[in-house]
Amino acid sequence: MTLAPASDELTAGATSRRRSARPEGRPPGRVPIGYVFVSLYTLLALAFGIIPALYAVVLAFTTTDGGFAGFDNFVKVVTDFRFLPAVLHVTLYLVIWLVMLVIFVVILALIVHAVKARWAGTTLRFVYYLPGALAGASSVLLWLFVLDPTASPVSGLLHLMGLNSFVQVIQPGNLPVIFAIIAFWTGAGGWIVIMYGALNNVSTEVIEAARIDGANAAQIAMRIQLPMLRKWIAYMGVMSLAAGTQLFVEPQLLSQASNAVVPNDYSLNQLAYQYAFQQNDFNGAAAISLILLVVALLLSWVFVTRGGLFEKE
Amino acid sequence: MQLFDRAGKGWPDVVFSSQNTDAAWASQKSGGKQAFAAVLDKGLVPQKTLDGFATGALNPCTVDGQVYCLRNDLAQAVLWYNKSLMDQFGYSIPTTWEEYEALGQKVATEHPGYIIGTAGDAWTPEVFMWASKCEANNITGPKAVTVKTDTPECKRAASLLDTLRKNDTVPVVSVFTPEFVKKYTGKVLMMPGPAWYAGAIFNNPQSLNVPAGQLGVAAPLPWKGDDKAVTGNVGGGTWFVSSHSKNLKAAEKFVQYVTTADAYQVDVAPGYPAYAAAAKKWVAKQDASKYYATSLQPIVTAASQIWDGWGYGIFSQEAIWAKTITPGVTSGKSIVDLLPTWQTAIENQAKVDGYTVK
């Protein structure tokens, strides 16, 4: 589940505006109002982000009575019979989802950008953004109906694929694809709108020059627009990766709706939840979250360096 | 509760639980913290009251010989059937599981589309495997369990389910789905299931909506050769009193009232009361409603026939069956073939929850 693409759009827009408009440094005598704006965010980030994360680090390396545990919690968690399957599930889901996201979001954004009629472009952007406006759990609830062949509006399609009952649809092999589709449906819209904004940043002179040189739409997309979007695609990749490794809402709700046919330890985050609240082992849960954090950081680093996220042009 | 324990305050005085897995952990200290559930049979609840519950009703509440909760309702599995349809087709009620399987074969040939049970819910093992004395959940201590699914008892129930699934008379569908209602309204000849099926499925306009005068109930079936029938249990709520409560006496009074008083258990409660005296009156009231086609005596008999070889641990057998057997069966495997997988799954989950497995 992606979190709040709307605020990312704001920061993205602000960054590009700041780079092109204002010079470095500020005139003397100006109050650093920026710090005031950021201070509330910093306080909240500390209270609800940094300090709990530090608490989790402490928990991960201690035992229930508070003694030092070294790597015991990590060993216990990694050798749990549910750990490797959960890793596999999340990996499959991430691969399918990220590939889907990058390919389709870029294509759809290019199409929306290329649409000539103004009303069509605006309507399309609105339609794409709409699913993302549904808060996470409610969109999954919607999907519970779509996935049940007896109640689904696309039951014809499901029957065509040989899926005649809800249990058949949620077979373990289908789950990564199902979760990827649900996450795409909710998250893609916001990213399309962001990519559209990024495409607007590509200077029209360059496009004109290419057109004069005889490039067609596809060549313009591949040779000019895509390379310029590289940073934004990397940004989308990093944000989606962070959200994706924390897969929780979709399998949890599907688990309850299917009466546990979809297990309640399908994803790593769910496993951490089980450790904390079913086994009363907060140290194990913290260990899982730390593992997730390290993996997500490593993968993000790859995206950031390969995508040149922090390059200045 | 883990969060209240960590915070050191905030526990509710009484808790109602619809799962039978709660006494297993609520009775134990966890992480050095005092056990949540108060012991009820060491003077808090009068012994006379405790003795007034049906035999075995307090089993889900009993850990290491001490009682930690009071039972609200029983959920003994009985054999529900549609008397009108059975009479119309000229079938007689089976008296053993073997006869039940034979009836399924008959129904499949003579009246395809009709069913004599379902096996798609998470509590399917509690209806069929428990009643067959399958030793999949033999809790022997607060943290000890014996799991043996390769026994003849387990195999006979598994084989029955496989045969009847293949001829579509016991399909793998959950009773709480639109699919069940759509496909099988008017087509349910028979249904082994808990006492609460009456209100939840048969006499429910949102579900099968069986008209008055059609629904009958028969006693649980034995397997041929067993001297007496046993049956399974699917839930039944329990009331806990917090050991941290500052109003212990008041909390106990409340819990006692709500599980034994006629004003609730007989007049209002939808489920079969666990308190024997209230149960008698409840059955009389149901009989008087003229909804049922037969006497409800089999439900009363079944209340004392719940097999005690299937215990109540901290881990959910329903969840293990749902994620192991149901997908396997949907993809074409047989339950008999899946029995070793089921065994491993139960053992793994038990070990993770700190149980020693034999």
Number of contiguous helices of chain B: 15
Write down the overall geometry of chain A.
Answer: globular
> Quick check: average pLDDT of chain B?
92
> What percentage of amino acids of chain A are in beta strands?
under 5%
Q: Could you spell the SSE succession of chain B in H and E letters?
A: HEHHEEEEEHHHEEHHEHEEHHEHHHHE
Q: Considering the protein shown, what is the CATH homologous superfamily of chain A? A: MetI-like
Give the overall form of chain B. globular
Q: What is the first-to-last residue Cα distance of chain B?
A: 30 Å
Radius of gyration of chain A: 23 Å
Q: What is the total number of structural domains of chain A?
A: 1
What assembly state would you assign to the polypeptide chains in this entry? heterodimer
Specify the helix fraction band of chain A. Answer: over 70%
Spell out the helices and strands of chain A N to C.
HHHHHHHHHHHHHH
* Poorly predicted sequence stretches spanning 5 or more consecutive residues of chain B: none
How would you characterize the largest beta sheet of chain B? 3 strands, antiparallel
Strand count, sense and closure of the main sheet of chain A? none
CATH topology of chain A: MetI-like fold
Average pLDDT over all residues of chain A:
84
Largest interface: A-B, 28 and 30 residues
How is this structure best described in words?
The complex is a heterodimer of chains A (313) and B (358). Chain A is mostly helical. Helices cover 74% and strands 0% of the residues of chain A. In chain A, helix 1 (5-21) runs parallel beside helix 9. The two termini of chain A are 31 Å apart. Chain B has a three-stranded antiparallel beta sheet with strand order 1-11-4, with helices on one face. A three-stranded antiparallel beta sheet of chain B has the order 9-6-10. In chain B, strands 7-8-13 form a three-stranded mixed beta sheet, with helices on one face. In chain B, helix 14 (317-330) runs antiparallel to helix 15. Chain B is globular, with a radius of gyration of 21 Å.
